[in-house]
């Protein structure tokens, strides 16, 4: 252990494992440690079910009706992957996909006035949707055609919209779209968590809607994918990638001290030994004095014996409750997976509701989501602080990841990964360069 490394990584959350894999591929000498005996950190998948009961301090053991404990892999922080999103690109380029199997999520729904509807994101679906009246459908269809054709390098496609100056509010007005349509477009398609985006330049929103449509076009049922056996498989896949490129992994390592001299990281002490390094990546729990609380999230894991009503009996789906529909500032998310993904016993479903906490009664805030899931067999409630680093790490060379937010997709996590990468290396994360590096070492055939 008394060795010199380029990078030491503490914690095996997805952010840390992806960065460890990327740095190893770049030829850096990486040491990766975790005080836990399992991968995934805060975003681990818990198995067997008995461990989930213990983790949430529930009395007794799971009833026999829940099947074998080993049949369960329950994500603590549920998220789906956008089929055309950044995480899938990272998985494909690094060929981590070879260690994982994915299933398409069967449906994406939005909440309106107490009921749920399928999210229309193609022209055909827009015309068939019961979310809108006839004239609204035509206007929404025109809007979707405009977005699909929009090219920021070709003024002819812009119809007078300036991507850097025109706000999204102005674009909606141009197509005369009503509040309900604005709600589901901004929150269930562009996946914003609040309405702050309305007064920002429209380009980011247009690109988000395109990402949703392109992701949907890949598989047809929804834009989301989910790995069999749960999200815990993702960090392990990137850990394997790091190991292939020479990274060293140590689980179950107590971290005694993070050694800083003259304001700069010099190493990490574990079990009396010191490993030296030039840069450190870690989750906030390892250096609490360099992180601050920026909010709270409530998550409720619910075990059901039935699919969610009005989802065409889907065995997996996402439901977004836009904040305006329930007089809130933040959306509420529900994602459901089931035995079909090898994460639950036969005939069982896991639905997880989450939102950003706004009041002193978080369980009341999440009630609209739980009402959609009734009857609920067992629920596990957690309220967690959200942490962000207090500085960029450029002086200390200590780079701290952000906590996982309430969203049910990984795009915000990927933004954090790219942000840390840029602060560590001084250059933007480049997917194409990553692919070249990998091919230089292995040739085009991947690892041998």
Describe the structure concisely.
By secondary structure, this protein is α/β, with parallel strands linked by helices. The chain contains 13 helices and 19 strands.
Mean pLDDT: 92
Helix tally equals 13
Total tally of structural domains: 3
Q: What is the β-strand count?
A: 19
CATH level-four homologous superfamily name of the largest domain:
Guanine Nucleotide Dissociation Inhibitor, domain 2
Give a written overview of the molecule.
It is a peripheral membrane protein. This is Rab GDP dissociation inhibitor. One of its GO terms (molecular function) is GTPase activator activity. It is found in: Cytoplasm; Golgi apparatus, trans-Golgi network; Membrane. One of its GO terms (biological process) is vesicle-mediated transport. The structure is a single chain. This protein has 448 residues and is α/β, with parallel strands linked by helices. It has three domains: 4-42 and 232-292 and 389-441, FAD/NAD(P)-binding domain (3-Layer(bba) Sandwich), CATH 3.50.50; 46-106 and 294-387, Guanine Nucleotide Dissociation Inhibitor, domain 2 (2-Layer Sandwich), CATH 3.30.519; 119-218, Guanine Nucleotide Dissociation Inhibitor, domain 1 (Orthogonal Bundle). The chain has 13 helices and 19 strands. The protein has helices at 14-25, 49-55, 86-93, 123-128, 134-149, 168-174, 179-189, 203-219, 233-244, 362-365, 367-373, 411-425, 431-442; strands at 4-10, 30-33, 45-46, 74-75, 81-82, 102-104, 108-112, 115-118, 224-227, 248-250, 257-261, 264-270, 273-282, 291-304, 317-321, 332-338, 349-356, 378-389, 398-400. α1 links the parallel β1 (4-10) and β2 (30-33). α1 (14-25) packs parallel to α9 and α1 crosses α12. The longest helix is centred in the middle third of the chain and has 17 residues, at 203-219.
